[in-house]
Amino acid sequence: ILFAILQPQGVLGNDHVVSWEVSRNQSLYREWGHGSTFLVGDTLVISMEDDIARVMSRSEYEACRADGSKTLIYRGGKSIELNTSGSWYFMSRIHDRCKSGEKIMIRVDAGGSMVGRHSLRMGG
Predict the structure, then answer these.
(1) Cα separations (Å) of 36 from 98, 109, 114?
(2) Which residue numbers delimit the Phytocyanin domain (predicted)?
(3) Does residue 49 belong to any structural domain of this protein?
C-alpha cells in the first residue's frame, strides 16, 4: 500500500494531498498528522472516493463516531480549506476502516503559509 502526501506551493496556502487506504500500520496517518505543519489558509485534499467525516471532538475521533450533530460530511475527492486554527479530526465514514486506522488528526496553526514544495511517500 502506498501513501503519498504532496505540498505544492500555493498562492494563499499549501495544498496537503492525502491519498489513503487501510494500512497494516494503524499509526501511519497519526504519525503523518503529527509530523506535518498545517497553517490557516492551507488546503487539505482528500484523494479518495469514499466520503469522509470531520468530527468536532477528540472523543468522537478516538471512538470512530461520526454521528454528532456538528459532524461535517465531505464527498470523496474534495478540498477542505483549513480556515481556523486548532485541532481538526477526519475519518472514513466506513466504520471498520476508521477502526483500522483510516483517520487523521491535524493541528492547524495561525500564521502565513510556508513557501516551498515538499513530498513524502510512506509505505503501509
Answers:
(1) 21, 11, 12
(2) 14-110
(3) yes
Which residues, including other chains, have CB under 8 Å from residue 15's CB and lie 6 or more apart? 6, 7, 8, 42, 43, 45, 79
On whether residue 124 sits in a domain, the answer given is no
By the 8 A CB rule, do 76 and 49 touch?
yes
Q: List phi, psi (to 5°) of 18.
A: -115, 120
**CATH code at position 16:** 2.60.40.420
Number of Cβ within a 10 Å radius of residue 116: 9
Could you read off the pLDDT of 27-49 as tens digits, one per residue? 666 766 776 778 898 888 777 66
For residue range 48-61, what is the model confidence (pLDDT) as tens digits? 667 788 899 999 99
The per-residue pLDDT for 116 is 39
Q: Which of 98, 87, 88, 14 shows the shortest CA–CA distance to 50?
A: 98
In a domain, residue 119? The reply is no
Domain count, the chain: 1
